[in-house]
What does this fold into?
Amino acid sequence: MILSRSEHIIPSLTLLIIAAILLSTSSCSNQSAVNTYEDLKEYKEAKISATDTQASPTKPTFTTQAIATFNEPWAMTALPNNGHESPILLVTQKTGKLFIIDTATGAKTAVTGVPKVAYGGQGGLGDIILAPDFATSQHIYLSYVEAGNGADSNKFGAKVIKTKLAGLNSNAPSLQTITPIWQQTPKVDGQGHYSHRLLFSPDGKYLYISSGERQQKTPAQDMSVNLGKIIRLNPDGSIPADNPFVENLNTNSNSNTNSNTNAIAAQFWSIGHRNVLGMIFDNNGRLWAHEMGPRGGDELNLIKKGKNYGWPLVSNGRNYSGVNIPDHDTRPDLEAPKITWTPVISPSSISIYTAGRHNDFPAWQGNALISGLSSKALIVVDFDNNSEASERYRYDMDQRIRSILNVDGEVWMLEDGNEARLLRLLPIT
It folds into this structure.
């Protein structure tokens, strides 16, 4: 049953951020093992960013319609249309639950067979995407956090699996035939900065995985571990021959680098990342990713093969201790972000708006839609043909937004935390 329509209406003009604000909520704090979704509680300096949104009389407006509620949702994806008037969504909860949602009625059907997840801090069940051949295979890919055992007891790491979604049209859907694809190496203490976003290339040939540096900083520059990297694999988990560091696989036995290190480095597409929670290909086939900065300096990056994005050597933010980090312009040899945000927006997901059967927001065509946690905002970003980007619009949503998804020209949002609503944005014309 669909919940009643929200009274929340987004105004046509957005108030500019007041420069006198002294503190704003952080991108990410150091996490303990306590179960909490309040993962952004450090404070930031209130410096007005050059990318702050300007008011525009042509800014599209919308209302929100609540469809269903969840406890700590994390990600969603849409099933193929198959003649449905309204989309059928798959929604993950950090707690380890997976649901099929009929957005026409709000009905939720639980999927059984989800692997045991290590729930706590920023960890639990994570991203979900369809296999490129889902129409015939019913395969999906899931990311989640697993706990170590033995020598890795009380340590954690992200894992990616491929599995079959069986009984999709029944009252008892389930996951079957689980195949491991990838995992973070090594498992480490703490329960933050897993990232574990999943994305297929537009041609369906390659699987991209974001791997956070697990709040350890230095792994992002360490070629012997796959933390702080964007990973590129074949759909079966094997390593593509044209990955930028694949030559490390051919290092001879006299090398100072062992074979395990070589195989790990061969996974990398780019390095020097902190906590990438959104990846997307734009309509021109360019790969973009946003990541949370430390004390300031959230980033939107254009991801290029083999490039180093600088963390923790450079950042437009500062350490939580207040100690300065050199800005990106001090290291022209490292890739600089296309947008930085201070105060932070705490970006949590990204989707490209493309009209399909619907065209609810034609003004957003080709733009990136970014959901914000501490900013409680929807941020609309425009790309140009010179591979530059700029913030175009910002909408105050009054709630932390965990996920955003464009489906056939409709826009869907998941709020963060307990009793979080699945919302459809309805344009005001």
